[in-house]
């Protein structure tokens, strides 16, 4: 599991600065580790080819080539763009232990990663990511 230094993100803004940059819904998920409701996110079912960036800072996180249909209600990827794009940390909220996924560039909350669920992917991982944490930049056709 990747665990770069969590103390110093490359992009550092105050809560007030984040609130000016993000909508209240984006702030709640990205900066307060909230979760959008399942099946409502704009990227849950999209098949558009492109790069998924962090909505907070614009760092490249995932590519459409690693996105797959998990039918869980959120966009799912089997691997980030590269291992340094995200930080994984243990999350003990909600009375269970999960692995939280953060943007390595600004430490914004993206979602969680799950392993061993039996999806037919190369990594046997499901990065379950909030649509509101992402911005899709389509590739030129």
CATH superfamily: Peptide methionine sulfoxide reductase
> What is the helix content?
under 10%
User: Treating each run of at least 4 consecutive H or I residues as one helix, how many helices?
Assistant: 2
Cα Rg: 14 Å
Instruction: Output the structural class.
Output: mainly beta
Q: List the uncertain runs.
A: 1-5
- Assembly classification: single chain
Second-tier CATH architecture = Beta Complex
The name of the CATH topology is Metal Binding Protein, Guanine Nucleotide Exchange Factor, Chain A
In words, what does this structure look like?
The protein is mostly beta strands and 141 residues long. It has a single domain, classed as Peptide methionine sulfoxide reductase (Metal Binding Protein, Guanine Nucleotide Exchange Factor, Chain A). Helix content is 10%, strand content 30%. The chain contains 2 helices and 9 strands, in the order ααβββββββββ. The strands form 2 sheets. The chain has a 6-stranded antiparallel sheet, with no helix packed on it. A hairpin with a 5-residue loop joins strand 1 (50-54) and strand 2. 31% of the residues are buried. Mean pLDDT is 92; it is low at 1-5.
């Amino acid at each position: 599991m990747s665990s770069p230094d969590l103390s110093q993100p490359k992009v550092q803004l105050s809560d007030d600065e984040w609130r000016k940059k993000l909508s209240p819904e984006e702030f709640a998920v990205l900066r307060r580790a909230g979760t959008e409701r399942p099946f409502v996110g704009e990227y849950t079912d999209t098949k558009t080819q492109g790069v998924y960036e962090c909505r907070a800072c614009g760092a490249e996180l995932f590519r459409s080539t690693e996105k797959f249909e998990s039918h869980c209600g959120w966009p799912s990827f089997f691997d980030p763009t590269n291992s340094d794009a995200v930080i994984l940390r243990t999350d003990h909220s909600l009375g269970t232990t999960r692995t939280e996924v953060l943007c390595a560039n600004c430490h914004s909350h993206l979602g969680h990663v799950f392993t061993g669920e039996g999806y037919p992917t190369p990594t046997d991982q499901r990065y379950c990511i909030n649509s509101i944490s992402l911005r899709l930049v389509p590739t030129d056709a």
